[in-house]
Amino acid sequence: MEKTNAFDGILLIDKHSGCTSHDVVNDVRRILKMRSVGHAGTLDPLATGLLVILVGKATKVSQYLMSLDKVYQGEFELGAETDTHDAEGERVASFPVPDFSAEELEKAMKGFVGDQYQTPPMFSAKKINGVPLYKLARKGQEVARQPRFINVSSFNLLEWKPPRAKFRLACSKGTYVRTICHDLGKKLGCGAYMTELRRISSDKLNVSDAVTIEALRHMGASEIRRHIIPAREAVPSFAF
Predict the structure, then answer these.
(1) Quick check: is 44 catalytic?
(2) SS3 call for 179
(3) Contact between residue 25 and residue 53 where contact means Cβ atoms under 8 Å apart
(4) Closest alpha carbon to 55 in 74, 36, 78, 72
(5) In sequence order, what E strands does 135-187 have?
């Protein structure tokens, strides 16, 4: 890349499955040759889609951008539970799947719409006394977690091909979608775990405007700048 001044603003990345959000931040740091890079909202390694990357002075508004509502599309499978609540974990239970109709399944899903408290899963980056929960979970430890307030504004069934269902979910910050899938399985009495997840949007920021890390690697500085959104276009002035 040609030599440039530092970049500033919001860069939308379409994250691929199998890498962590921190991996993406490190990739952007190397490509932009900058240390001042962060993100506004973690995606699990299994998940794909919109990762909001903050570059330069835009890192100061991370808390505001993290607070925005999110929209996801994904898939869950009925008939089993995993320790992580998704396909990356170990199966810990298996159950027969009743012959649910699409209408019955969607009715159960609608029961998760609204204000509620959700207990973070043990396999998560949330810290207890400075230690990420997933590190304790890997040692076989389970500790008490404080439930937190979330809101699910919609949870819609897109496709039902037993035992798998595709869905679209809109929710507030801090919502563990895989745990909603797990809890739905508990409610149905047959277990469930998330097999796919893709973040579509964070408020008005959409994955359709995002670029992949692979594409970013082949861009020059001027082209990268065309993909960087000035922070003030996405964040009110009071957030600075």
Answers:
(1) yes
(2) helix
(3) yes
(4) 36
(5) 148-161, 164-171
